[in-house]
Amino acid sequence: MDISPLSLVLIALVLAAWAAGAALVVLRANRSVGRAKAMRTSLKRMQTLLDVAPALPLLVRVDGRIEAPDRLARMLGLAAMPKYLSELAATPGSPKGGGLAQAQLDQLWAKIQTTQKSAAPFRMALNLPNSQRSLALYGTLADPQVSPGGAALVWVFDFTESHGEMARLRAAAARATGDFAALVGLIEAAPMPMWFRDADLKLQLVNQAYVDAVGAMGAAEVVQGQIELLEPEDGRSPADIARSTLQSQDKSERIVAATIHGARRTLRVSDLPLGQEGVAGYAIDIEEQQQVAREFRAFRDAQRALLDQLSVGVALFDADERLTFANRPFRRLFSLTDEAIEALTPFDRFLAEARERGRTPEVRDFPEWRRERGGWFGMQASIEEAWPLPGGTHLRVVAQPLPDGGLVLITEDRTESLALSAVRDTLLRTRTATLDSLFEALAIFAPDGSVQLWNRSFAGTWGLSGELLDQHPSADELLSAIGRNLVRPEEASLIGAAVRAATLDRREKEGRVELADGRTLRFAGIPLPDGNGLLTVLDITASQKAEQALRERAEALEEADAVKARFLANMSYEFRTPLTTIGGYAELLKSGVASDPAQAGEYVDAILAAVERLTEQVENVLDLSQSEAGLLPIRKERLDVLDFLTTLVREREAAIIAAGLSLDLKGRRGRIISADPRQLGRAVGNLIDNAIAHTPEGGRIVIEIRKAPEGADYAVEIGIADNGRGMTSQELARAAGGTVPRGEGAPERRTGLGIPLARQLIAAHDGTLDIASRKGAGTTATIRLP
Fold first, then answer.
1. Mean confidence (pLDDT) of the chain
2. In the CATH hierarchy, which fold is given to the domain comprising 420-539?
């Protein structure tokens, strides 16, 4: 079949049109594929951006359906994102506790509804339950292109970290605010003036102390009037000085004087730059410190002037062991110059120079010795040393550490004092040896009455112990010890009076005492030039005994002569009276006067009584003579004392009754003695006769037999006591000599030699007779027999 060219052309045109259409389709398909690929790439990029975005979208439709990425579900603690907003509530009892609290969900739904209705955005912060996560919600009405129909788009931000940081910043801000308030309060309450200048160096802030110091009404008045506390210095105002501080940014400090409360005070002013914001300043009142410093300087100068007047050397070393001061005696001792002190010579160098001048002891290892002395600075207690120097000089060195680490060195030249001490010791030893070699007992008392010194004889003379004197007892203690050794302890006050007169009254006083051992001491208190008192004691027992013996011998001779005279007178009376009686009555009988036998009998009785009386007296004289010559015959036999005395009393019963007396005989049988009954009876009988003769009518005589005490040198004691007229000592002495005075007249008749004969007869029996009598109180005779 023939194809016409027109057909071919048409076919060609159709094919060309088809090819062109196919090509166009292919081109459009390629363009769509490109756009789809670009769309997928853009979607992936947007999804990636949403995944890493700090905010996650939550689309909430009107019916409560929601759309959100799964990341938001994980943020809320959910396994998957629910379809409705109400399903975001936390499930009760869920162990993970994901979702929102019901109250939070109700609040969020209410805000979303408000936004959907009014298109008003909202903000909301949530803290997820059972979690530390904090979410910030920002809700707006969704764009119609995103979701038509009035849906709400809520952007959810996780600001957990931001919330913690904000909480920390709030706390820090609160603390800073409190600290600033406290600082402001502290500045306001500070007792020192404080101020602040701004960058223009104008007063911007002042405290109350500043206001009070300038006398203003308040801080506002000070700031407004720019009232300065300080005065200009060298033409520079306080602001100019603060400007220099602000420019240099260095703290400045100066001491100025200012008028505060009407008084000039010394202030230490400090300016402190606060960056470029301004300058803070404060002023401290140091007036009291300055006053103390001035007083300290005055005290130090006075102290150093005083130290220069001392005789001991004093040097001061500071904590760096440098010499800062030395008084004149110290300079003389160590040959120091003013240049050495001004140069603050170190302690080691001072010792080295002192050694060169021969002012330190000679030691083998001087460096070690100096090192040991350098340790004085670190010690707590003072150190004292003796430095024997070459040439015989002796120094006493005292090192006193100071609390600040320094040292006070005190030196004293004791050369002269040691020499004087040696001389004094020699004198003391000489004095002690001299006192100890004296026969007299000596003691030296201080003005307060204490015993200071004594010699060897003092303790033995008074019978004192050496331990008592070693304690340097007071006068009262010494007198108490001495009083125990005196016959009359009260006489110790005489010794105390002598000591007091010598020490206090400064006059001499003497006295005499008797010791219990029979010695007689003579003492005297003598004042000494040094204010003490000397008590000197001399034993005058031997001389006293010799004097007493001589006196007794003289008295005995005088008494013997008087006794002889009285004895002759008495015997003349005693012999003449019986003889006269015998002669008279014999003459009467011879003359025949007695012619009556009765009368003649009376004359004969009188003659016989006189003969008996004369015979008795002759026998007494013979017995007394034989007794004194030691020729009296004694025939001893055993006698019961009670029976013996009973016989004697019975013989005198008539005389006792006639005198109107009563007699008591006390004792018991069995007390046996060895005696001559005749001779002892005559002695005791004479004593009983004397008691009867000298006891007035109605009187009483007591004869008592007593046993001798343990250790006595006799066996029996016989006491004969009466309550008669008694005798004085003179009368008793005369009676012992053989006469008894009768008032103012001559001797009266008595019954014989009486007491002398009785004493001789008792002595012949190795016994003793003691007679005690008091005028008007009676007489007591005591016989002691072995």
1. 78
2. Beta-Lactamase (3.30.450)
